[in-house]
Amino acid sequence: MDVSDRYVLSLAYGLVILCFMAGTLWGFAAHRSDAFGYGASVIPAILAFGLLTDHVLSLGLGTVTRHWLLIALFVGLLPLDHWMQKQHLAPPWWLSLRLSITAVVLACLIFVGLQPIP
What we know:
Number of strands: 0
Structural class: mainly alpha
Pfam families: DUF3429
Keywords: Membrane, Transmembrane, Transmembrane helix
Transmembrane segments: 7-29, 35-52, 59-80, 92-114
Protein name: DUF3429 domain-containing protein
InterPro entries: DUF3429 (IPR021836)
Largest sheet: none
């Protein structure tokens, strides 16, 4: 497997994880009729869709650029998790779990992102 394949595989797996994490936020928001919570929980998945492949919504961004934007989206989910917890929508242990998961995901994505492409 060459480095560009690793980028594509890492991007695809990362997008699945990001959408799963955003989906849990939607589940938390469903406990209360709050337009902000619903919107904030679906926007990351919609943005992630734009990073999926080379299609019209990706705006011609290359694989490496999409990979680093995915990293930014993971970081961007953390304030939403914090907000959900402050609103008592997420369980008390949620944010510590998310910080651990995000640290592992970011370490993996950054490791791949730092690999030079021949």
